[in-house]
Design goal:
By secondary structure, this protein is an alpha/beta fold. Helix content is about 35%, strand content about 15%. It is globular.
Amino acid sequence: MHSNSRIVVTGGAGFIGGHLVERLAAARAGSILVLDNLRRPCVGDPGVWPPRVTFAPVDIRHREDLAQALHGCEVVFHLAALSNVMGAVSDASLAFDTNVAGTFNLLQAAKSAGVRRFVFTSSREVYGEPDRLPVPESAPLRPKNDYGASKVAGELYCRLAAGAGLETVIVRLANVYGPRDRDRVIPLFLQAAKANLPIEIYGGDQVLDFVWVDTVVDALIKAACGEWLHEPVNVASGKGVTLQELAQRIVETTGSLAPIRIAPKRREEVRRFVADITRARELLGVAPPADPLWQLARLLEHPAMRV
């Protein structure tokens, strides 16, 4: 990407998308168009954008709005999705319409507009409950919930588009954390700790792979700028953290009196996941620190999380 590039970021008002847009704008990467339906905005003020960034209230479920938006675009970062596992389970139709049909619509528009590179944010949920850890990209895709299934479908449509000449790159993200996120495990645990309410762990034996949002943004930009990566890439820390350890770290970091409680497990949730990040290290230069939760204390600087 260069200063004259035209870049589209779908879901650019969301958690990861907002951080990506800020980084692209700061780097003067080009003119940036954010497409978002503002169903779940995580940016500070959805009406205020950095220089060189414009916003269009476009929903990727509406195919007719996408052709004009992508006209003259060189790179698409596709982050728009119903991105909460339990939310996708509770509204499977919306998950399909947004994550599957929406991705299909966007790929069709990208091909028609002559887009060069299309970066698709997939998820570790595509693997489901893996047979072994860490999980390489060659592991079977056996999603355990509607969200994972929708991401598998999105990946398949990306592969079809690649066969038609669109440079699609599939990036499978682990559990991303950082400022402005909400409704996922770390912000939920922090909110409970802030209020000295019980921190509930469903099942008690989960092990997950947490990765700081800036690491993910680095990987997305490199996926867009470097050589075309024909195979999916895991972006993660490559280290497992038990949810009990996470809860204890949050209690200690916040000085909270919140008790940690074990609740019945939820069958839709993956119990254990740690990514093999060999490919990300080699191809994207991802080099996460030894402690995946190294930036946990920084989240408390965010106004919504101060205790």
